[in-house]
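Table 4 source record.
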Amino acid sequence: MDTTALAPMTELEAINDMLSLISESPVASLDEASRVADAQIAMQILRRENRTVQTHGWDWNTEENLTLSPDLDGNIILPKNTIKVDPTDQQLDYVIRGGRLWDRINKTFTIGKKVSVTITFVHQFDELPETARRYISMAAGRKFENRTIGDGNSHQINELDVLKAWAILLQEECDNSESNVLQSNTVRRIAHGRFR
């Protein structure tokens, strides 16, 4: 029994969905997509949208109370996919700079101690929950159509489709954080970032 249709959307599937919007043939692999002009544009837009959505910080890409340890030089090297970090201790003024934590008060990379942080990561498309994949692919598809056939022409994805996918993603975030949309600071912040 073929269960491919029941699996979560892959990055390749999202790219091929975007290509179908402009009646282009699908590609067989991400490697092929990187060599075909329209597929390359679709992949770039999809990956850009993926990063943009994840910078909001969601339940599924944010870790709280994560302890980071310094290296032998006292520097705290951040994982390469870190996009946001905030010390748990609000007295500390550390920010990301060059892939390390920078102490803004003491003007140094030399932290020299363990630090507890809330950290947000950017993940590959295929590591995201299905609701995030769906929204990202819809938003990217809309942008891809605008870029390739123009904003004033008939589109297969309209703004309402994108907003519906966004609402489903927000609802999942509410469910995961066990709060409703009126009580959740995270959801209010994310919603404000999308609709401003």
